[in-house]
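FORM 12-B: Structure-to-Sequence Request
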């Protein structure tokens, strides 16, 4: 099922949660709504679900207006961050709940419900836990049961609100890889909310970056990371050095660091802001090209060295990231170095 959102607005008192949001989600894709806390992503998800209603705008499911359709009639499965499992019910009964409470005329036979529940528990690889209670499960297991329960009613759309937010880092990493594989098997249109950029870039087919109630950019993970459309996206996705400088003649200068800026071909300098990824800075010792500076700190994080370089009294320290495969560190604190950017992005202002 495709979802089309047209000119949505939503206010909570004087606070504007969504500001003229328009978006198209294609049938069968897995989309991440990504942004900082309070940006409006959960509000948008709840409006798609029918748990909230917009002040203005339209929501269409497969071309049909669903703006005022009740949540029960939308064919949506919803997975919450904190599982929302019934503690007094077994895993089997939790998954069966949505089917067993249907009106009698729509309710499957008892053996059909059992077949469906065991099929879903096998799908989420937890069929051996059918007789357990939620308190007897780990956080990761509870979240998979919550997902099985949402899938039991055969939703046309699956919505997940920060589904892994309450889990520790190791479990989160395992579960998001599992969710990607599961989606490839079931192909139901899915939308998940997250503020974790790594999660969004690893799992989603497309990412919607939201800031202050507005859509900043929509694209594949590669497009979002490699070609950010706005300064906010560049600063929010991945690490970046943010520098103030001036541009003229197709080049921008940031305290001696020069970055190609073909869009600024005018002869008179104008203020600009530049963004340079730490791994896009080349670092060499004495006699190298680029701006001179000295190493302030060095830290090894996994297979990377993170190096802070001071290039001038008025300039912010440059954050540089280099691959490191063991052995002696190539730079030490206090060492004189030269820094040169290999790539960067320049914005007006």
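FORM 12-B RESPONSE
SEQUENCE OUT:
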């Amino acid at each position: 099922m495709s979802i089309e959102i047209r000119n949505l607005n939503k206010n909570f008192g004087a606070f504007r949660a969504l500001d003229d949001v328009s978006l198209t989600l294609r049938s069968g894709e897995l989309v991440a709504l990504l942004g900082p806390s309070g940006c409006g992503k959960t509000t948008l998800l709840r409006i798609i679900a029918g748990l909230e209603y917009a002040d203005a705008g339209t929501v269409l499911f497969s071309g049909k207006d669903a703006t005022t359709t009740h949540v029960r009639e939308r064919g949506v499965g919803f997975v919450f961050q904190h599982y929302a499992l019934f503690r007094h019910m077994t895993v089997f009964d939790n998954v069966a709940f949505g089917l067993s409470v249907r009106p009698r005329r729509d309710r499957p036979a008892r053996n059909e419900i059992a077949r469906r529940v065991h099929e879903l528990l096998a799908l989420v690889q937890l069929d051996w836990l059918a007789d357990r209670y939620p308190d007897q499960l780990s956080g990761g297991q509870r979240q998979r049961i919550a997902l099985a329960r949402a899938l039991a009613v055969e939703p046309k759309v699956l919505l997940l609100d920060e589904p892994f937010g309450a889990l520790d880092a190791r479990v989160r990493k395992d579960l998001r890889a599992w969710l990607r594989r599961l989606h490839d098997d079931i192909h139901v249109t899915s939308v998940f909310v997250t503020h974790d950029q790594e999660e969004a870039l690893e799992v989603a087919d497309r990412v919607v970056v939201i800031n202050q109630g507005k859509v900043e950019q929509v694209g594949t993970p590669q497009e979002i990371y490699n070609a950010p459309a706005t300064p906010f996206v560049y600063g929010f996705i991945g690490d970046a050095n943010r520098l103030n400088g001036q541009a003229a003649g197709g080049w921008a200068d940031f305290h001696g660091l020069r970055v190609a800026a073909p869009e600024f071909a005018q002869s008179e300098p104008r203020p600009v802001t530049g963004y340079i990824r730490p791994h896009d800075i080349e670092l060499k010792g004495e006699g190298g090209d680029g701006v001179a500076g000295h190493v302030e700190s060095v830290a090894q994080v996994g297979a990377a060295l993170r190096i802070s370089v001071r290039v001038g009294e008025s300039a912010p320290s440059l954050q540089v990231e280099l691959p490191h495969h063991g052995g002696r560190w190539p730079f030490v604190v206090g060492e004189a170095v030269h820094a040169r950017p290999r790539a960067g992005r320049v914005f007006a202002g």
